[in-house]
From TrEMBL:
Taxonomic lineage of the native organism: Bacteria, Pseudomonadati, Bacteroidota, Cytophagia, Cytophagales
Molecular function terms from GO: DNA binding
GO BP annotations, alphabetical order: DNA integration; DNA recombination
UniProt protein name: Tyr recombinase domain-containing protein
PANTHER family the UniProt entry points to: PHAGE INTEGRASE-RELATED (PTHR30349), PROPHAGE INTEGRASE INTD-RELATED (PTHR30349:SF64)
Domain Tyr recombinase: 62-259
Length: 284
């Protein structure tokens, strides 16, 4: 198993605590990966696969992982030293958030032929689905914001079709080395994101992962984006997967929706809440 999941059990009063749902999720996904490889190599039969209907991998609700738009705006406005690791960390978070919540592995694996800065689009497939059935391998299309294009130009390699966009990986690396580089990047980025969060007054834990959840939740809370669009943008094949990425509605929205239960409110028109991604301005 990957080194990233080798965790010592947490203890309370000297006694090991039960594994968290998130830890169980990490371990069982590795087991599922082993089953998928064994089936692909015809070592075992598909009938022995336990994850199709016999067992469902548990997952924690993603409610605490999505940032409010006001906190996201703080990240956009944070001023980091130009060319510093902290600026790169901020930029990678913003790029992930604006690019359909693309995860860090997919971002690191992008090559220039998948990025078109003229038409402002990225087309890619999730790395984790490349070894699955073909019908689950769908193209994800990202419409690039101007802020995203600036980030590509600031941190990208010279534009050559077969080259990786970011100078992190190379073709002479094996998969283990690539995974190690990506893990190190995530760890370093998360450390700087934690510092940024403290400096701008964001109370929840800020990591690269929160960008993906925030992308989905902000769109949902805009009240004008259908769940199908969000699910498709994330590259999900089922709505149930998408639902795990969605955070709670704000208190103001909850109050508005519950007010609709009363027939006395049917003709009222409460102030609409509209979260417009394009209204975010980056101050450099």
């Amino acid at each position: 198993m990957d080194a990233e999941i080798r965790k010592a059990p947490k203890k309370q009063n000297g006694k090991p605590l039960p594994a968290s749902i998130n830890t169980v999720n990490i371990y069982t996904r590795q087991i599922r990966k082993a089953f998928n490889s064994a089936i692909k190599d015809k070592i075992i039969s598909e009938n022995a696969y336990p994850f199709k209907s016999a067992y469902v991998i548990p997952s924690e609700e993603g409610n605490a992982k999505a940032l409010e738009l006001t906190d996201i705006e703080k990240i956009f406005h944070y001023k980091a030293e130009p060319g510093s690791i902290r600026q790169r960390s901020k930029d990678l978070w913003i790029l992930t958030y604006l690019s359909n919540g693309i995860n860090m592995k997919d971002l690191c694996m992008l090559r220039w032929h998948q990025v078109d800065l003229i038409t402002k689009k990225i087309t890619f497939k999730h790395q984790k689905t490349l070894r699955t059935r073909k019908e689950r391998q769908k193209d994800i299309i990202v419409n690039l914001h101007d802020e995203s294009i600036e980030i590509f130009k600031r941190w990208g390699t010279p534009n050559s079709p077969n080259e990786y966009v970011f100078p992190l990986l190379s073709d002479d690396m094996d998969e283990s080395r690539k995974r190690s580089v990506i893990d190190s990047l995530i760890s370093l980025t998360n450390n700087h994101l934690s510092i940024i969060a403290k400096k701008v007054g964001i109370s929840i834990k800020l990591r690269t992962y929160e960008a993906r959840h925030s992308f989905a939740t902000v769109l949902l809370q805009s009240e004008s984006v259908p769940l199908y669009f969000i699910s498709d943008a994330l590259g999900h094949t089922t709505f149930s997967t998408t639902e795990r990425y969605l955070g709670r509605f704000s208190k103001k929205q909850n109050k508005k929706y519950v007010a609709n239960l009363s027939p006395n409110n049917k003709d009222k028109n409460p102030d609409r809440i509209h979260c417009d991604l394009h209204s975010l301005k980056v101050h450099r």
